[in-house]
Amino acid sequence: MGGPMGVYEQDRYPILRQDIHLIEEALRQDKPILGVCLGSQLLAAALGSPVTKGKSKEIGWHPISLTQAAMRDPLWTKLEPSFMAYHWHGDIFELPSGAVSLASSEKTPHQAFRYGRAAYGILFHMEVTERIIEDMVKTCQDELQSAGLTGRRIVQQARKHLPRLDEIGKSVFTRWAGLVKTEPQA
C-alpha cells in the first residue's frame, strides 16, 4: 500500500529493501502480487524500473484512462475505459520491461500495469473510503498547501466520485482475489 517514503530512500527506510526482496521472491515463484501506490512502485523497482519524483504531485480526483490491453485483462475487462480515481502520489515509475501498461492519467503515463500472469501494480487508490480520505487530508495539510490544494474540495468531490470508484475497486480486487484462490497448491 502507500506511505510517505520513496522507493529511492532505502538507506533511510531499510524495510523497503526487504519489501523489494520479498516481491522478487514472489515473482520468482509466480505468486499473485498486488501493489497499490507505494506497492506499485516497489513492484516496478523489483522488476528493474527506476522510480523517481514526478514533475508535480498528483493528489485528489483525476481521470484514469484504461489502455486497450486493459480491455482484455482479467482484472479490468468490461469496465468503462475512463473513470475518476483518487490519487495521492508524487513518485512515478517507468513501465517495467515485459510488463503490460493498463492505465494512465494526464500527469502519469503508467498508472497501472501487469507483469506476467498475476503481478499487478496500481498507482492510484481504489481502496479508499470517505473516512480514509478525510484522515489523509487532515494529516497531510502541509503537503496539500505546498501543492496548492484544499482538503475541503477533495473531500467534497469524494461524495460525487467515491460510489463509482468503490464499485470499480470491488470488481478489480475481487477478480484479483480470484487469481489467488486459483493459485496452484504446492
List the helices and strands and how they pair.
Layout (H helix, E strand, L loop, with lengths): L13 H15 L4 E4 L1 H9 L4 E16 L15 E12 L6 E5 L7 E4 L3 E4 L7 H10 L1 H6 L4 H31 L5
Helix pairs in contact: 1-2, 3-5
Q: What key attributes describe this structure?
A:
single chain; 6-stranded mixed β-sheet; 6 strands; 5 helices; alpha+beta; about 190 residues; Rossmann fold
What do these coordinates show?
The protein has helices at 14-28, 38-46, 130-139, 141-146, 151-181, and strands spanning 33-36, 51-66, 82-93, 100-104, 112-115, 119-122. It is of the alpha+beta class and 186 residues long. It has one domain: Class I glutamine amidotransferase (GATase) domain (Rossmann fold, 3-Layer(aba) Sandwich). It has a six-stranded mixed β-sheet. The radius of gyration is 16 Å and the shape is globular. The mean pLDDT is 94.
| Overall pLDDT confidence | 94
Helix count from the secondary structure assignment: 5
Biggest beta-sheet profile: 6 strands, mixed
The count of domains is: 1
Would you tell me which CATH topology applies?
Rossmann fold
CATH homologous superfamily? Class I glutamine amidotransferase (GATase) domain
> What kind of assembly state do the chains in view correspond to?
single chain
- The amount of helix comes to 25-40%
Rg calc = 16 Å
Cα separation of the termini: 27 Å
- The counted number of beta strands is 6
Q: In percent, how much strand structure appears in the residues?
A: 15-25%
CATH architecture: 3-Layer(aba) Sandwich
What's the arrangement of strands in the largest beta sheet?
1-6-5-4-2-3
- Give me the secondary-structure category: alpha+beta
Order of SSEs: HEHEEEEEHHH
Per CATH, the class reads Alpha Beta
- Give the overall shape, derived from the CA principal axes: globular
